[in-house]
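ARCHIVE CARD
Drawer: 12
Card no.: 0347
Subject: one protein chain, sequence and derived structure
Cross-reference: see card 0346
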Amino acid sequence: MEKKEKLWGGRFSESTDSFVEEFTESVSFDKNLAVYDILGSIAHAKMLGEKGIIPKEDAEKIVKGLNQIKEEILQDRFEWKKELEDVHMNIEKALIEKIGSIGGKLHTGRSRNDQVVTAFKLYIKEETQNLINLLTQLKVSLLNKAQETVDIVMPAYTHLQRAQPIRLAHYFLAYLEMFNRDKERFQDSLKRINQLPLGSGAVAGVDFPIDREFVAKELGFNEVMRNSLDATASRDYIIEFLSNCAICMSNLSRISEDLIIWNSTEFGFVELPDKLTTGSSIMPQKKNPDVLELIRGKTGRVYGDLVAVLTIVKGLPTAYNRDLQEDKEPVFDAVKTLTGSIIGMTKIIQGLKPIKEKMEQSAGGFALATDLANYLVRKGIPFREAHHIVGKIVSYLVEKDRELESITLEELKQFSPKFDTDVLNLLSIYNVADARSSFGGTAKERVLEQIEFWKRRLNLS
């Protein structure tokens, strides 16, 4: 039987077993890196020509051939072959077939170890910027919704129990802050992604007079990695990226949970747009928040992507090991999942309709109790004593199946002589919300300040 030649097969006397070819191939998924691999190869070829490591005319032929292959890939005309293992070997083999043996000069002064990290970094750098842009759109949607809802008061919840009245805009601004931190995490991680590994070789560097700064400039990297072992072996930039994705998904999951609860018949605080919900195959009355539920569910999937890569690198000896082939699919999955989730949440926020009457009906009652206690504190009663007095008032009203707003001044005086006519002003959800006028609070003036701040930050003012 004729031995099937690999590009690396000179040392071997037998053809690779078909099981090994199937088990070790990665081209079925790492072909996602094709364009980035070609960009890295073009920059490398240009540098080889500039430095005279290969003839300049050969470098030009290589660049021309790579650009032709890139067009074939973009037009879905490129034939991927599993027996060539990965995206890098597929492209190199196609280049040799296209321009002849000159194509074999491309791999001068590099290894697949530094080649793959370079392509992956270019991919993650671009996807990081895409996620930053999507998060900016989500932030704008939250800001617009906050502006629309400044005059709606709703109950805030702790332990899923009604706590205190807040302005609905305050809630949307809270998530704007969370997603802004997500955006900042991605932005900060670019400092570590933006370091060129190419030129590190397999593990120890390269014995050709290469110009790594030239390649870094060509590819838009801010700096060159200083240590060849670190450049080829480290995957912490991937872990950081996946960690950022997981944190962002956790915030998306939490707002999804809030909106799912608010959309329930029992709460009835919001109405989701029909075009972003689904029906039941058996119950005609159902309008299900499937997009939100899937965001909530897919969060665990992205957590799994992070844990997978952490587990892969945990026990590896330093330097390249084939285990690191398994870092690609978790990243591709996390990118796809997070991208779709941010887009879905942005659409949900844009189409969300708050039910003001229902929210404000639920914002009063015993949610005003803390302000009653604070009233007594202002009258000179220690907070713990005031807390106990108001607790007795709540118990009294619960027994009578009444809300706090129904209590009279005469009844209040039965619990403390410190109550006076001005206490009745407290029994208003608007007054209570606006009493929280400390910086960062839910008072209307503070909410409007936050909105103006974000309009400036997002260049919308």
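Annotation on reverse: The chain is about 60% helix and 5% strand. The chain has a mean pLDDT of 92.
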